[in-house]
Amino acid sequence: MALSDRLELVSVSGIRKLFDLAQGIEGVISLGIGEPDFDTPEHIKEYAKEALDKGLTHYGPNAGIRELREAIAEKLKKDNGIEVDPKSQIMITVGGNPGFLMGFATFLKDDEEVLIPSPAFVSYAPSVILAGGKPVEVPTHEENEFRLSVDDLEKHVTEKTCALIINSPNNPTGAVLTKKDLEEIADFAIEHDLIVFSDEVYEYYVYDGVKSHSIASLNGMFDRVITINSFSKTFAMTGWRLGFVAAPEWVIERMTRFQMYDSTCPATFTQYAAAKALKDERSWKAVEEMRKEYDRRRSLVWKRLNEMGLPTIKPKGAFYIFPRVKDTGLTSKEFSELMIREAKVVMVPGSAFGKAGEGYIRISYATAYEKLEEAMDRIEKILKNKKLV
Q: Most buried of 83, 226, 291, 383 (most Cβ within 10 A)?
């Protein structure tokens, strides 16, 4: 099947459709976008200016500049327990998203299946489809805090299954896989000879003493794991479009070839700034300050949602919360549209994240505390007026 035919199988993100609906409505509070409301720390912006002043405005290596790959290798060893060769096992990407399509392109054959825990980030399934594969949703459940289990996986694996995506901390649910969860998933991957894509972009935003673990650090797993990460959430650098992949040498070599003929390379001066940022203590101080503020907002929203009659699991990570709205008698799309029209609050219907997301909505608490308070007041007022709870 030609790529142009595959594009016909991929629809516009449900998140984008919702934003279009909200355009032109005065006084809207958006709890929909998955983007830090913090600005990039000043010292990181200064590093980018320094790079420009140094003349780092030319093409860089297809796999990324050496300084950044080495800094990432140090970070992976220190924070993730993953030892990699920066020369051959790390590649810098234009944001985290391209890592999925380029990664699948290295091995996926037509109609091979990829297991995707649902609810799931909106880019996963389209990446599989564009690479020629078939996405298979594996439902996760509220009673298990939306954590993926091997029991769920076993119900959906077939002879055509060749890969699995995991995302911890999770978008949209905020679920965080425990080390035991990952060990069981690793055994499952080995038993069925699967390649694992591990999306770890929210790794530093965890709460209640929870720790984020990398499946590639487990014994024997590095050779079958493609770890995808980005600076977008960690350092509030979404507009910089800078991510990275750590994977076996054969994967990186093929992904680099893909990038060579696609974007060529990420912007050189942004890579320089990221390399400097990784080694600057001010960066990690900023991360901790953001994490504490997200935690404060998380507690507010979780408390208010439960009080107003929307049962909600307290998320362990990321900056999303996933309240249940099915008890209101509305679909997630109907609930979201009602809140846009009458409460002027933007939320994303759970159905945008897969079949298992129906009956829930995603709220991003990456917005100011005062706006969150106002949004909760508006939602509660509509729920009471409409007698939905």
A: 226
